[in-house]
Design brief:
Rossmann fold; Helicase, Ruva Protein, domain 3; 2 domains; 5-stranded parallel sheet; globular; Etherase_MurQ; EC 4.2.1.126
Length: 296
């Protein structure tokens, strides 16, 4: 039974949704959406602890793996996919898996989430280890696929984190860190792609970004380890180097070329007035943290 879940109850503010003008509906929906970041704020302590687990995994050769079904699964995959171009981290280091497999990313496979054993099987196929962190995403907090995955991960000794949009969620029982963000009834009853989806998106943004900062992928508030895979990103790298060091765009371009298109290295070269080899040595000694590399 799901009728007791907050995510499944009726929203008293939208009972006449079908009788509203478009503008009235938009104002109501916008007001409901404004509750989401406030609900997330109440879980900041748990999110902080979750970031610590992910950083621990990265520092010990482990990975971050999202597991979910439907909207939740797609949000995990979206965050995982974006980590490589944004932070330059290896593809294998941040992964997302979804009930029903890759096919379910673009077409709903509704029955796939009902088998807990599939969650465990999919993690086994990724060769999950006890150095990894698994984040189970489920708005309801009771999705069998996610439950099975988290239970297997916990038995294996991996770090486990759950993200649900109901209190006392079932998936919380299998999580070292349980994040339960209650955003209230949806604008359309049970449509958890709405406020619940927004909450989960905000939380995975915070976890992955916080973890990347924690392993030296960011300098000041600049993404200095991104992959320069197209001209737009090359231009962005030039701008980032100029912002970080105060040099001109032309000087930034020159140092980017001399660093073999490694923004981190270029920044250290400029700040320390050193060669590429010396900059790389400093970064290696500083475990990839630009600020520390410049200080030493």
């Amino acid at each position: 039974m799901i009728n007791h879940l907050t995510t499944e109850t009726r929203n008293q503010n939208t009972m006449k949704l079908d009788d509203m003008s478009t503008k009235e509906f938009l104002h109501v929906m916008n007001k409901e959406d404004q509750q989401v970041p406030l609900a997330v704020e109440k879980e900041i302590d748990s999110i902080e602890n979750a970031i610590r687990l992910v950083v621990d995994s990265f520092n010990n050769g482990g990975r971050l793996i999202y597991i979910g079904a439907g909207t939740s699964g797609r949000l995990g995959i979206l965050d995982a996919v974006e980590c490589r171009p944004t932070f330059g981290i290896e593809f294998e280091k941040v992964r997302g898996i979804i009930a029903g497999g890759d096919h379910a990313i673009i077409k709903a496979v509704e029955g796939a989430e009902d088998k807990p054993e599939d969650g465990a099987t999919d993690l086994k196929e990724l060769k999950l280890t006890n150095n990894d962190t698994v984040i189970g995403l489920a708005a309801s907090g009771r999705t069998p696929y996610v439950l099975g995955g988290l239970q297997y991960a916990k038995q294996l000794g991996a770090h486990t984190i759950s993200v649900a949009c109901n209190k006392k969620a079932e998936i919380s029982r299998f999580a070292d860190i349980a994040i339960e963000v209650v955003v209230g009834p949806e604008v359309i009853t049970g449509s958890t792609r709405l406020k619940s989806g927004t909450a989960q998106k905000l939380i995975v943004n915070m976890i992955s970004t916080g973890a990347m900062v924690g392993i030296g992928k960011v300098y000041e508030n600049l993404m200095v380890d991104m992959q320069l895979t197209n001209q737009k990103l090359v231009d962005r790298a030039k701008n980032i180097i100029a912002l970080a060091t105060g040099v001109t765009r032309e000087q930034a371009e020159e140092h980017l070329k001399n660093s073999l298109y490694k923004p981190k290295v270029a920044i250290v070269m400029i700040e320390k007035r050193c060669s590429m080899e010396e900059a790389e040595t400093s970064l290696q000694s500083a475990n990839g943290f630009v600020r520390e590399a410049i200080r030493t």
